[in-house]
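Protocol step 4 of 5: obtain the predicted structure for the target chain.
Materials: sequence only (see below). No template structures provided, no constraints applied. The aim of this step is simply to have a reference model before the mutagenesis design in step 5. Sequence pasted as it appears in the construct record:
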Amino acid sequence: MNDEGVGVDRPRPAAPNRKVLPVARAGRGGGGRRGSRGGADGLGERLRRARLARSLSLRELAERSGLSRAFLSQVEHEKVSPSVASLSRIAEALGITMSELFLPPHGETEGLVRVADRVRMTFGENRFVDEVLSPSLDGKLLVLRSTLFPRSDSGPPYSHDADEECVVVLEGRLDVQVGDVWYELGPGDALTYASRRPHAWRNPTDADAVAIWVITPPRY
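Step 4 output (structure tokens):
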């Protein structure tokens, strides 16, 4: 995947006590899951803090991740938003998971997550929204509710350091690739696969698709 960039900003103000993460906006096209931004809590700032905490220069991070120094600088300064494949490479180079960039690592492993309290991550204006249904990363599951916008996709196949995941389609149609095989899923269909196998998804229709992803352990 190429490292396309895009302007970013925050979502609309949330209801009281709603935990909403700053988000990225992207145009249509073949990009992947995209990161967030906005002020001190944006993805770029989180990446910069993680890099500095490890005493890494941008040049060293570029060498570790295989991405250009210029691109990483743009990510940190919120000039572009990385694809999921690129963000995965950056997180791996920093020795963290992607989920740690968005979610608190510690918290209650049991408990009620009300709709108004969901952490919400928007990856591109015309791509998709993830809502986190898990209370924290301390449990054994990461549960996401995804709204996948028309003609959106995750870009080239990618993998991550979890054991297994399952996607269940609630509304619309979703095509999921695992290895070299594409599966066409409709409402009620479920697909389970190893997270370390290269996988990708696309919504080939002109309507939203809604799906639940369950990932164990909670590494995203």
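Step 4 remarks: Residues 43-53 form the longest helix (11 residues). The mean pLDDT is 78.
Proceed to step 5.
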